[in-house]
């Protein structure tokens, strides 16, 4: 395969040298522009065009003496921190044109990269027409129907190309994959204790990950793996294994368990690990546990901390569950806790406007037992409750087929909804073990058939003491706020003046722009997946959220606009 890396390609060192700091800030976005071939050929072979700033710092001529001059020049020009989509596109077309039949599995770091490569391949001559229908994405946000398509066989003379995140490393085996293309990149959450938030970082995979990806090729017959990184990087620069979770995730739950098991001083215990976390990360976790109320005195468990240690969830979600049982709104809080612990039920179709319309339609419905829908409008958490309640009611009254049709109509993942139901039952049973709620007298430990359905009906029964206020949105939001505190953001813009000043609804102030939110340290932004993302007017100047994630900006996920009284 003949390939020349263009000097103006985003994957070239020259591109980085020219754009400098601008490239650094835009590196997380995907560039769909292809390098110009005339620029390649005009300077190809002329090393005077390569200043020191253009040369790949990981390039060593001694490592590649057996390779052609063209390959060495490509490697010299390459910026290894950027995926070369020109090369990726050409390689897939080369495989389709020259290699025997068999599906191609391409590993990419994220959904944005998958969608961009789909657009590029669909626009190419090689994959136009019916072939473009078999360029398939594979990631966690797809519907079960779309995920199942990757296991189907394409028509004769059409090659299936699967563009996947690392979900295809271990979770899924596709029998007809013969060719694997590995970009060597993935995205993972990294917690920054200084900023007290997570960042989604694109990074190199480990050697163990690379071997796992290579093993996806040729499950039923001999296969080939094309790696878009050098042998030198694989042997010398990649980690043997992935960064330990202790070094990249918050340590709050771990610290809680250390105290629950009476293992002594938290910092001393964790610093004995083979790869110990930074002291700063340990201190940040301990500080949060004090703020939540789980610790008191000299890092000792409080009564709240004692109960939180018995719940296998994030401490903020656990606190929310405990308060939900105490303040009589258990059923909606169980739904919120399950969704926040697992993932959003909404799938990611090509037309995102349809999902937004579906969310708006759900928010126009009353919460079970409530007479008002006004408080539902600006809350991702209440959206989760309404979606689950409606799905559960349809499932019980009309059966699984109708429930599945409801999910299709509102862009919900049916598999996720069933998982949420099971998690609700698990969480409710754990609260019963603690002694905060009662279980039906005829309940047994088995969770199958009618018993599971009966237990679900029990936790959803709004006449029971732990659900007396399950239809009061103000109570639910207050419990959510108490659980997620101190994750609060505030704004001074676009606030409904009637909310705090007693004015009529006609006095609502509609701003031209979205309100700017601040978390006490910096400006933050509501994530595009939130129902509050496009709001220009808000009921109240505060919102609560589960997590802060830094990508191109600092985003807040899963938000609810809340009253000052809730705080």
UniProtKB/TrEMBL annotation:
The lineage of its organism: Eukaryota, Viridiplantae, Streptophyta, Embryophyta, Tracheophyta. This is Helicase C-terminal domain-containing protein. It comes from Aegilops tauschii subsp. strangulata. Keywords: ATP-binding, Helicase, Hydrolase, Nucleotide-binding. InterPro entries: DEAD-box_helicase_OB_fold (IPR011709), HA2_WH (IPR048333), Helicase-assoc_dom (IPR007502), Helicase_C-like (IPR001650), P-loop_NTPase (IPR027417). PROSITE patterns: HELICASE_CTER (PS51194). Residues 87-262 form the Helicase C-terminal domain. GO terms for molecular function: ATP binding; helicase activity; RNA binding. Pfam families: HA2_C (PF21010), Helicase_C (PF00271), OB_NTP_bind (PF07717), WHD_HA2 (PF04408). It comes from the Eukaryota.
């Amino acid at each position: 395969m003949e390939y020349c890396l263009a000097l103006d390609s985003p994957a070239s060192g020259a591109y980085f040298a020219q754009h400098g700091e601008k490239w650094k800030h835009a590196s997380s976005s995907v560039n769909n522009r292809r390098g110009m071939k005339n620029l390649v050929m005009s300077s190809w072979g002329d090393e005077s065009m390569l200043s020191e700033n253009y040369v790949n710092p990981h390039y060593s001529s001694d490592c590649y003496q057996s390779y052609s001059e063209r390959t060495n020049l490509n490697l010299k020009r390459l910026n290894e921190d950027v995926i070369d989509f020109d090369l990726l596109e050409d390689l897939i077309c080369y495989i389709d044109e020259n290699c025997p039949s068999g599906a191609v599995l391409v590993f990419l770091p994220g959904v944005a990269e998958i969608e961009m490569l789909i657009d590029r391949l669909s626009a190419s001559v090689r994959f136009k027409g019916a072939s473009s229908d078999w360029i398939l994405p594979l990631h966690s946000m797809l519907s079960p129907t779309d995920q199942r398509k990757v296991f189907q066989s394409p028509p004769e003379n059409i090659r299936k190309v699967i563009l996947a995140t690392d979900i295809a490393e271990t979770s899924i085996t596709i029998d007809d994959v013969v060719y694997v293309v590995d970009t060597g990149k993935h995205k993972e959450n990294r917690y920054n204790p200084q900023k007290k938030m997570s960042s989604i970082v694109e990074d190199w995979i480990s050697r163990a990950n690379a071997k796992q990806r290579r093993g996806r090729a040729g499950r039923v017959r001999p296969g080939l793996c094309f790696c878009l990184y050098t042998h030198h990087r694989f042997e010398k620069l990649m980690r043997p294994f992935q960064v330990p979770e202790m070094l990249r995730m918050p340590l709050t739950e771990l610290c809680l368990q250390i105290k629950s098991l009476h293992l002594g001083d938290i910092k001393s215990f964790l610093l004995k690990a083979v790869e110990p976390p930074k002291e700063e990360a340990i201190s940040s976790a301990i500080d949060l546990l004090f703020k939540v109320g789980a610790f008191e005195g000299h890092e000792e468990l409080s009564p709240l901390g004692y109960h939180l240690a018995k719940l296998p969830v994030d401490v903020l979600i656990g606190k929310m569950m405990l308060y939900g049982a105490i303040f009589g709104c258990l059923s909606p809080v169980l739904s919120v806790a399950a969704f926040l612990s697992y993932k959003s039920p909404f799938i990611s179709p090509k037309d995102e406007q349809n999902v937004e319309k579906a969310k708006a339609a759900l928010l126009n419905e009353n919460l079970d037992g409530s007479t008002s829908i006004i408080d539902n409008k600006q809350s991702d958490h209440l959206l989760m409750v309404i979606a689950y309640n409606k799905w559960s009611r349809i499932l019980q009254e009309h059966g699984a087929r109708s429930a599945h049709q409801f999910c299709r109509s509102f862009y919900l993942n049916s598999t996720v909804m069933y998982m949420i139901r099971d998690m609700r039952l698990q969480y409710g049973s754990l609260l019963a073990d603690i002694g905060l709620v009662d279980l039906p007298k005829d309940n047994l430990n088995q969770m199958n058939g009618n018993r599971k359905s009966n237990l679900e009906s029990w936790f959803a029964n709004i006449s029971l003491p732990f659900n007396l206020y399950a239809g009061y949105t103000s109570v639910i939001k207050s419990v959510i706020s108490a659980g997620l505190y101190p994750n609060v953001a505030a704004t001074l813009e676009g606030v409904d003046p009637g909310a705090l000043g007693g004015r009529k609804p006609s006095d609502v102030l509609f701003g031209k722009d979205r309100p700017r939110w601040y978390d006490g340290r910096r400006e933050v932004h509501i994530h595009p997946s939130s129902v509050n993302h496009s709001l220009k007017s808000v009921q109240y100047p505060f919102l609560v959220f589960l997590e802060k994630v830094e990508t191109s900006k600092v985003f807040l996920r899963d938000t609810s606009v809340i009253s000052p009284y809730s705080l």
